Amino acid sequence: MPQLIIRELGLVDYQPTLEAMRVFTAERDSDTPDEIWLLQHPSVFTQGQAGKAEHVLAAGGIPVVSVERGGQVTYHGPGQLVAYLLIDIRRLGIGVRELVTAMEQSLVDLLAEYGVCAAPRADAPGVYVDDAKIASLGLRIRRGCSFHGLALNVDMDLEPFSRINPCGYAGLAMTQMRGLVSPPPDMTEVGTRLATHLKKQLGYA
Fold first, then answer.
1. How far is CA 113 from its chain centroid?
2. Digit-coded pLDDT (tens) for 161-179
3. Of 6, 35, 75, 171, which sits with the fewest C-beta atoms within 10 Å of its C-beta?
4. Is 145 a catalytic residue?
5. What SS3 string covers 142-199?
């Protein structure tokens, strides 16, 4: 079984982290261990490859960064847990759809541990609690290897989501673990549990 390294990076700026993902993916070879990076970003909007400018309604002072992942515009900020999956999916013997399903199921199982009933939606990638989105997904595959990943709203300011059409959906409601889980969840603990579920779903555990 390929080796998996989990890195907890804390609060890190988006642009250098993006560059680090690109470099890691470009330079890895068939022996490079897979990695999952757990982190938070200062406030930033990221616009996916097919992203349309009109979905950014009023960025204000928050930077907008265009990236090569799939999907439309989303928001990252402190209190949101981001997991970047740097995985050789060819070596793992899975396709993109299986990777997405594993990510969604990991989030559903994690939230269930906290008593939150969540589910993916066939028409809109991500994980939802009722009709409100609690986690977003966006990936890029290069030479059989994934980068980018998922973002789970844990304990953050949701206001910036109102400045965009999240993931291209006007008026899409956003939610987070705070308010659904009492007491509010510990960020580090959520990250550790998420990593455990990802390892299990992807077959590392």
1. 19
2. 999 999 888 889 999 999 9
3. 171
4. no
5. ECCEEEEEEEEECCCCCHHHHHECHHHCCCCCECCCECCECCCCCHHHHHHHHHHHHH
